[in-house]
Design a protein that fits this description.
Length: 99
């Protein structure tokens, strides 16, 4: 398998009520590639959003949900969620501004 580039690691931001409340503590939530490591996620955030400094990264692997269509069963794809904590002197991530 090919190595992940930093722009392939972060897929999209997670916009929920809980993730918006966590932004007050400099915590941002992203959906990331399932094979990405914590160090790759840290590097990707610091490169994609200049001026940010990552303090820590917490990840969660979520299994796909079982779905049914007629008599056949299947599963949705697995996802990985990362909560990135920025340092106090770090610049804010501007993708969330105005939400």
């Amino acid at each position: 398998m090919a190595a992940l580039e930093y722009y392939d690691v972060i897929l999209k931001p997670v916009v929920t009520e809980a993730s918006m409340n966590a932004m007050a503590d400099n915590k941002y939530t992203f959906l990331v590639a399932p094979e990405a490591t914590k160090s790759q996620i840290k590097e990707a955030v610091e490169k994609l959003f200049p001026g940010t400094k990552v303090e820590s990264v917490n990840t969660m692997n979520r299994d796909g949900k079982q779905k049914r269509r007629g008599m056949t069963f299947g599963k949705t794809s697995k996802t990985k969620k990362a909560i990135v904590t920025l340092t106090k002197e770090s610049k804010q991530i501007e993708i969330y501004q105005g939400l």
